[in-house]
DNA sequence: CGATAAATTGAACTCTATCAATAGGTGTGG
DNA sequence: CCACACCTATTGATAGAGTTCAATTTATCG
């Protein structure tokens, strides 16, 4: 099967074979990074572009008093810092959630990708979907209470992983602590625990030992108002979000 | 004085004169749109790119039950829908806050801009700053209480307008209702009113009749942890954010 | 000047935070 | 294999922040 980076970019639209060959090259130099390890820190100006191939990572900012907000999960195929060509310094941190394989793409290779129209468009697409996802998260934090907020998050991760064929029967690895979930949702640890138990008690899902089992995706989507349109998936893969 | 669009793009870095001449052309066909009027609706696939030249607008999403979340303010020089080349449909609405002048840039003209390296970089920069701003808003909603949240928002708008020389003595037009502010902050109207009065009582600012007077920007920044780094302003204009 | 929208106020209620204590689980050293 | 140490999850009580709803006052605008 084709690598996950290619698969992700093809969620936007099919790529020519020559482009796909290039992507196979790009993806070769993976490096394993342990769980809970920083990939990029605020203030860094990375030389290369980083790309998550396996495992998961997250973007966050830490305030003076130590409180932290997580505002994105990086799943396989996601870029860490495609913006490195434009912005002089990272304005946030990226850390692994689980042991991950991360590829470093040298600048010349990115430029080569940008020179290919289909790839260039796919890169733009990935950036714009990241932005659309942030908007949806803002709606989530601004308008929904703890339980619905959580449900929406899980629907999103489920949809994104499903689109890449990375779920099996609605279940997938989610190697996250409740503290990290709380930092994602802008909630206290205690309240996060309570909300999770509610969802568990209603038999909608089960999160245990880093494994999330979705029991009733339909109800989760309805209750949280999840509409995958913001992920801007196209073509035949659209079904995978069901 | 040079037009506000050029000024905004030069916040990233200086542009060649030829590019500036092009921008002067681009900006000519302004059209006035009344306050509280939709510029773009969710589902639209605009043919041209829209650009706010005067006045203010906002991005929002409305949920089934009518609740709404605002997740960006468009100030003079800001793009509405630069993504129109990539994403097939808008996933949110854009409406004017006040009577505004909006320019429609035809696709060929955008393509011409993209062909000029300095302009292409500036357009990327504008997109990435929008994304960084969204991240900061997420921190704001996730981690700060009503008063600090509001303070942070006002610091941001003040910094963005100051960078364009659009404030006078810390005051500027902010033609917004408390309901809209509440929808921005994920708070109820009543609570928004209370928070606003707190800030007013402490003599930090005064918002009345669509005019915001910042009384003590230092305290506002300190209390809300505002750090303009995420706006990624460069060069000589950096001072303007003070 | 009247009509309408916006801002303000107050009371009761709900959600979420805080804090502290308890329970589980896992890995390590003895 | 047990015991300790440490991290994560869980629980409960209390306090606080924020919501809801309804009523009232204050703009604003034709």
- Secondary structural class of chain A: alpha+beta
Chains forming the largest contact: A-B, 42 and 42 residues
Could you tell me the number of beta strands of chain A?
Answer: 10
Indicate the mean pLDDT of chain A: 94
Determine the N-to-C terminus distance of chain A. 22 Å
Number of helices of chain A: 8
- Give the biggest sheet of chain A: 4 strands, antiparallel
Strand-and-helix sequence of chain A, N→C? HHEEEEEEEHHHEHHEEH
Q: Portion of residues in helices of chain A? A: 40-55%
Q: Please, what is the oligomeric state?
A: homodimer
Low-confidence regions of chain A: 236-242
Give the strand content of chain A.
15-25%
- Our Rg estimate of chain A from Cα atoms comes to 18 Å
Please state the overall shape of chain A, judged from the principal axes of the Cα atoms: globular
| Spatial ordering of strands, largest sheet of chain A | 2-6-4-5
General description of the model:
The structure is a homodimer. Chain A has 8 helices and 10 strands. With about 240 residues, chain A is of the alpha+beta class. The first copy, chain A, is globular and about 50 Å long. Mean pLDDT of chain A is about 95; it is low at about 235-240. The interface of A and B includes residues 69, 141 and 225 of A. The structure holds a DNA duplex (30 and 30 nucleotides).
Quick structural overview:
Two copies of one chain form a homodimer. Chain A is built from eight helices and ten strands.
List keywords for this structure.
alpha+beta, four-stranded antiparallel beta sheet, homodimer, DNA-binding, 242 residues, disordered C terminus, three-stranded antiparallel beta sheet
């Amino acid at each position: 099967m084709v690598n996950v980076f290619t698969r992700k970019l093809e969620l936007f639209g099919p790529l020519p074979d020559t482009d796909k060959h290039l992507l196979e090259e790009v993806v070769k130099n993976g490096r394993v990074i342990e769980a809970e390890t920083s990939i990029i820190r605020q203030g860094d100006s990375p030389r290369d572009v980083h790309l998550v191939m396996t495992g998961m990572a997250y973007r966050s900012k830490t305030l003076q008093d130590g409180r932290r907000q997580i505002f994105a999960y990086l799943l396989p195929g996601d870029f860490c810092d495609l913006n490195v060509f434009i912005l002089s310094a990272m304005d946030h941190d990226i850390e692994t959630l689980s042991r991950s394989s991360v590829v470093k793409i040298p600048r010349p290779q990115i430029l080569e990708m940008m020179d290919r129209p289909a790839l260039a468009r796919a890169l733009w697409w990935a950036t714009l979907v990241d932005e659309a996802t942030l908007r949806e998260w803002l709606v989530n934090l601004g308008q929904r209470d703890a339980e619905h907020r959580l449900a929406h998050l899980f629907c999103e991760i489920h949809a994104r992983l499903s689109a890449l064929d990375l779920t099996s029967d609605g279940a997938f690895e989610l190697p996250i602590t409740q503290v990290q979930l709380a930092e994602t949702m802008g909630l206290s640890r205690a309240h996060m625990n309570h909300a999770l138990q509610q969802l568990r008690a209603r038999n909608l899902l089960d999160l245990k030992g880093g494994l999330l089992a979705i029991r009733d995706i339909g109800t989760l989507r309805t209750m949280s108002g999840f509409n995958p349109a913001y992920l801007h998936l196209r073509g035949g893969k659209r079904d995978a979000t069901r």
